[in-house]
Design a protein that fits this description.
Number of strands of chain B: 0
CATH topology of the largest domain in chain B: MetI-like fold
CATH superfamily of the largest domain in chain A: P-loop containing nucleotide triphosphate hydrolases
Helix content of chain A: 25-40%
Number of domains of chain A: 2
Structural class of chain B: mainly alpha
Shape of chain A: elongated
Oligomer: heterodimer
Strand content of chain B: under 5%
Number of strands of chain A: 18
Shape of chain B: globular
Order of helices and strands of chain A: EEEHEEEHHHEHEHEEHHEEEEEEEE
Order of helices and strands of chain B: HHHHHHHHHHHH
CATH architecture of the largest domain in chain B: Orthogonal Bundle
Helix content of chain B: over 70%
Number of helices of chain B: 12
Chain lengths: 334, 257
């Protein structure tokens, strides 16, 4: 089961604070959307409003074309995977997963069969008799996912579901989450502050800041062609070079006015955009690349960061002519 | 020297607490007409007399009835009040919490007199029901406090998940809140039963023809000392102890695990 979600001019104010400020967003049926942003950006507020646990100050949410205003969580076609899992400690895993089906009046035998199917889907077959406290964090996460998917919601809401897991497990669960989403076809709305996680799983990333949507698009677009300076900075490290009427601290490198954005991996010794000579300050080995910091000779106060090949010999003090292979010019100034 | 003193103090403290009970129990076996030293021999005849006394046995059944029913009502009301105040932010919820706890600080005599005046005004006759209402009044704050203290974030989140999965409020209470709070609910229930079982002054003021066991014992005492009274006392003590042991075995053992 799946449905599109339409968010129309949604506001949520807490007194003078604006947790959500005129947010509009259309999510297609079966899409994997990631709401990304720093804490306090409004991403969890938006998820809470879609789930019906809080009411918007103004604006509407439509799921499958149906207006959700005034509809309680239990009557919405949504279920949530909570950050702390919120499993029922007094129930077995099977009964946890079957809970929603029980609420929908499904008979005992049928719902237990279905719960066992769902546990198998998340790789926990044969463990239905256990209690939540016997499981590891990752396993509890899977049970919470199975429980939320068992009722075949149109939209699954995930509130930082991988936040409590260690890095390795988190990366493994991301892949699994993505493949489960493909199999069930449900619309997923996933909240995180980890941009790598967002890029790994999202069909589309929605970057949020201060209650507004900053940027929205497929991971490659948001990373390579960010819409705002905030979006560019949040998705990863970026060099910012101010540009006024074609003039930059590095000289006249490009016509236009605004901020020139260049990712560190787009800086090298060749490329269509020359950045002029620069002195190497230092270089650090990062495994797949060396992170090198340069002081341009034309503007020694401006530091450029580049990711250079791991095999390259880098001696601090060396002067090199730098080029950019890709860049974005935004009209904003920092 | 220090250690010896500590052990002596401990022994003295326990003797102080339990000697009266021990004396009571010992002289309930008195083979004579008075429950005073010397012990003239061991006999079970006072127990036989007590157990064949219709009024006493009726009072015992009344006491059990009042204790279980009033504890159940107090628990239900206390649990619902605690659930509401722990979940919903209401204006004046601090005041409401205070008002719910307040009866704990009022002596049973005052509560009994107040209820007596109220029932007289409204024309309700004293009975086991009015005594039960009095016991609900004294046990409700206890049940509320125990339930309220036991409700935490984990429970709130589980309740939210249950609503998300389609549970109605009644289903949330029945299938999630109550089972998760089971140890606290059992503790509140057993304590309420114990308090109601032992309670005298409210029961004395609010009953008339059918009375509870403490009231019946009091009327026995008015006709003078007898080992029969001791035997009843020993039985009452036995029931209270059984309740406390049951509480320890079920609730506290589970909570510690």
């Amino acid at each position: 089961m799946t449905a599109p979600v339409s968010i129309r001019d949604l506001c949520r104010h807490y007194g003078p604070a604006r947790a959500l400020d005129h947010v509009s967003l259309d999510i297609a049926a079966g899409e994997f959307i990631v709401l990304l942003g720093p804490s306090g950006c409004g991403k969890t507020t938006l998820l809470t409003l879609i789930g019906g646990f809080d009411a918007p100050t103004s604006g509407r949410i439509l799921i499958g074309g149906r207006d959700m205003t005034g509809i309680a969580p239990k009557d919405r076609p949504t279920t949530t995977v909570f950050q702390d899992y919120a499993l029922f400690p007094h129930l077995s895993l099977t009964d946890n997963v079957a809970f929603g089906l029980r609420m929908r009046g499904m008979g005992r035998a049928a719902r237990i069969a279905r719960a066992q199917e769902m546990l198998a889907l998340v790789g926990l077959e044969g463990r239905g008799d256990r209690r939540p406290h016997e499981l590891s964090g990752g396993q509890r996460q899977r049970v919470a996912l199975a429980r939320a998917l068992a009722v075949e919601p149109d939209v699954l809401l995930l509130d930082e579901p991988l936040g409590a897991l260690d890095l390795k497990l988190r990366r493994a669960m991301q892949d699994e989450l993505k493949s489960i989403q493909r199999r069930v076809g449900t619309t997923f709305v996933h909240v995180t502050h980890d941009q790598e996680e967002a890029m790994a799983i999202a069909d589309r990333i929605v970057v949020m800041n201060a209650g507004r949507i900053e940027d929205c698009g497929p991971p490659a677009q948001v990373y390579l062609r960010p819409a705002t300076l905030f979006s560019a900075g949040f998705m990863g490290e970026v060099n910012r070079i101010p540009l006024t009427g074609g003039q930059s601290p590095l000289g006249p490198i490009l016509p236009g006015t605004g901020t020139l954005l260049i990712r560190p991996e787009a800086i090298g010794l060749q490329g269509p955009l020359p950045l002029g000579p620069a002195r190497l300050i230092d270089a650090t080995f990062f495994g797949t690349y060396q992170r090198a910091r340069f002081a341009p000779l034309a503007a020694p106060d401006l530091t450029l960061t580049a990711h250079l090949p791991q095999g390259m010999a880098l001696e601090p003090g060396t002067e090199l002519a730098l080029h950019a292979t890709a860049h974005v010019l935004l009209p904003e100034t920092p | 020297m220090g250690r010896g003193l500590i052990w002596a103090y401990l022994a003295a403290a326990y003797a102080f607490i339990f000697l009266p009970v021990a004396v009571l129990v010992v002289f309930s076996f008195q083979d004579g007409r008075l429950p005073v030293p010397p012990l003239q021999g061991v006999s079970l005849r006072w127990y036989a007399k007590v157990l064949s006394d219709g009024d006493l046995m009726a009072a015992l059944v009344n006491s059990l009835l009042v204790a279980t029913v009033s504890a159940s009502v107090a628990l239900l009301l206390g649990f619902l009040a605690a659930h509401a105040l722990a979940r919903v932010r209401l204006p004046g919820s601090v005041l409401m919490r205070g008002l719910l706890i307040a009866p704990m600080t009022v002596s049973g005599l005052i509560i009994g007199l107040g209820l007596l005046a109220l029932f007289n005004q409204t024309g309700i006759r004293p009975s086991l029901v009015t005594a039960g209402i009095g016991h609900v009044v004294i046990n409700l704050p206890l049940c509320f406090a125990i339930c309220y203290a036991a409700m935490g974030d984990q429970q709130r989140n589980a309740e939210r998940a249950a609503r998300d999965l389609g549970a109605s409020e009644v289903q949330v209470l029945r299938l999630v809140s109550a089972p998760m709070l089971a140890p606290a609910l059992a503790a509140a229930f057993f304590l309420s039963v114990t308090f109601s079982w032992d309670e005298f002054i409210i029961a004395f003021l609010l009953t008339r023809f059918d009375v509870t066991l403490p009231v019946e014992i009091w009327s026995m005492l008015r006709s003078g000392l007898s080992p029969a009274t001791n035997a009843v006392g020993a039985l009452v003590f036995l029931v209270s102890t059984a309740l406390v042991v049951a509480l320890e075995l079920t609730v506290f053992r589970r909570a510690r695990r």
